[in-house]
Amino acid sequence: MNKELFDKGMKIRREVLGDRAVDTAMKNADDFFMPFQEFVTQYCWGEVWGRPGLERKTRSLLNLAMIAALNRPSELKLHIKGALNNGVTKEEMVEIFLQVAVYAGVPAGLECFRLARDVFSQEAI
């Protein structure tokens, strides 16, 4: 493991997803799952999210669309929260999820709206 990239990734991961989400993920990682947490933190958050080519808001917009199209509801809820932290508005999410409905199917779009509404109510937005 590259400690420098891991530390960079952990910083970005906490800034985007929040301490509670990251602390829960790390606390729940046993010996079997910890290598995956290290991998995600180092490569996803440190290497890719840490690149200068796109702003975090843009990365969040992309993530919402891709995760929604892949039908990953748990990750989508997490990234909806992260997108809000990165400045994505509810209005922008409406547009993203309508686009998802057209290109990935209406059921996928419907699930996006349901999950986002849940997150908005939990976060009092």
Tell me about this structure.
The protein has 125 residues and is an all-alpha fold. The protein has two domains: 1-53, no CATH class; 55-125, AhpD-like (Up-down Bundle), CATH 1.20.1290. 78% of the residues lie in helices and 0% in strands. The chain is built from seven helices and no strands. The longest helix has 17 residues, at 106-122. It is globular, with a radius of gyration of 15 Å. The relative contact order is 0.12. The mean pLDDT is 95.
Indicate the mean pLDDT. 95
Helix coverage percent = over 70%
Determine the CATH topology of the largest domain: AhpD-like
Q: How would a crystallographer describe the biggest sheet?
A: none
CATH architecture of the largest domain: Up-down Bundle
Instruction: Provide the number of structural domains.
Output: 2
The CATH superfamily of the largest domain bears the name AhpD-like
The end-to-end distance, rounded to whole angstroms, is 38 Å
Top-tier CATH class of the largest domain: Mainly Alpha
Shape: globular
Unreliable stretches, pLDDT < 50, 5 or more residues? none
Number of strands: 0
Domain Carboxymuconolactone decarboxylase-like: 36-117
InterPro entries: 4CMD/NDH-1_regulator, AhpD-like, CMD-like
Organism: Advenella kashmirensis W13003
GO molecular function: peroxiredoxin activity
